[in-house]
Amino acid sequence: MNCDVCKVREAEVFQPHTGRRLCKECFINDVRERVRQEAERQGLFKARKVLLAVSGGKDSYVLADALAEVLKGVKLIAYNITEGISGYNREEHVAKLEGFLRGRGIELLKGSFKSQVGYTLDEMVQASKVKGLNVSACTFCGGFRRKLINEVAREVGADFVATGHNLDDEVQTYVINFLRGDTSRLIREGEEPLRLSDYFVQRVKPLRRVYEWETTMYAYFKGYEFQEVECPYISQRPTLRAKVRELLYSLESKAPGALLRLLEEFDRLAGERKREMLKALPRHQLPRCRICGEPTSYGREICKNCELLLASGLTPKYASLVSR
Ligand SMILES: [Zn+2]
Ligand SMILES: [Zn+2]
Questions:
Q1: Cα 190 to ligand 2 centroid, rounded to whole Å
Q2: How far is CA 36 from CA 53, 68, 223, 230, in A?
Q3: SS3 for 70?
Q4: What's the CA dihedral at 158, 164, 167, 171 to 10 degrees?
């Protein structure tokens, strides 16, 4: 059977949400076109420099490939963090990622929790256990990852940070926030997350309209050798996300396109909520942490990251990646 778009090449993939059968080339072009539209919507064409936060997983390969194609005149730099999880972080994965990025004209900055915070993730988790704290590895990891990505983006002078979150990730996050009744978090989601501090570099998610199965297919068609090993701390991950993921899968299989429609609707709601919250927010910017200088919540003097380290009996030994 021939491709529904070019009518010439043989179709290799069925796209349920459009009902089309596509060949490899037309499928790749279709994904890139959605990335281009999203880049336009989020203002990426006005950027001079964009920092790509890359984990080495399939989505980061797709993100780098599609953006290099779409944002021809924009300088792209990538940043990868080695968390310091024994048996999980492998130098060969970073080397492969670096080689791939170099081929796309993108320099890779290689950072780590050890060199930038002073401790590996394993060391942080261990220290918190000794102190009897009930903090999951994902809490340390997520918090420090956000902090370091933001710092490096500022240091290299990036106008935006692009992450590889796909459509499935985005809708899951929305549903989880709604289920928890935590609509205040909506201001961090959506098309233009609210910036409460000039020290936050604007985050964008160019793959947010691309299904997870599509990034998998893209990576497969391109033959990327991405990191497939599962993080050993996965058992500590919130189980709610896994349940929501299952629920959304079955919804999507019964009503193809459901995730795209949900995203549109959630974005609209988040936009309304954001406008409401803006009116109620203090006029001044977020305060900055006394220890590390990163923005922290209103009313706090020390950020959550620094607080966690101190509570674990560890002294922060922050070091810059760029001006080393
Ligand atoms: Zn085709
Ligand atoms: Zn801090």
A1: 26
A2: 18, 11, 22, 30
A3: helix
A4: -80
Helix H or strand E encompassing 278: helix 258-280
Tokens of 119: 């401790």
> Looking at the CA of 309, which ligand is closest?
2
Name the superfamily (CATH) of residues 26-311. HUPs (3.40.50.620)
Residues 142-163, mean pLDDT to the nearest whole number: 96
Tokens linked to 302: 């020390």
- The whole model's pTM is what? 0.93
Residue 56: per-residue pLDDT = 92
Helices (H), 71-193: 91-103, 113-117, 121-130, 137-156, 167-179
Domain boundaries, the chain: 26-311
> Residue 90 — pLDDT band, cuts 50, 70, 90?
confident
For residue 7, give the ligand nearest its CA: 1
C-alpha 8 to ligand 1 mean position (Å): 6
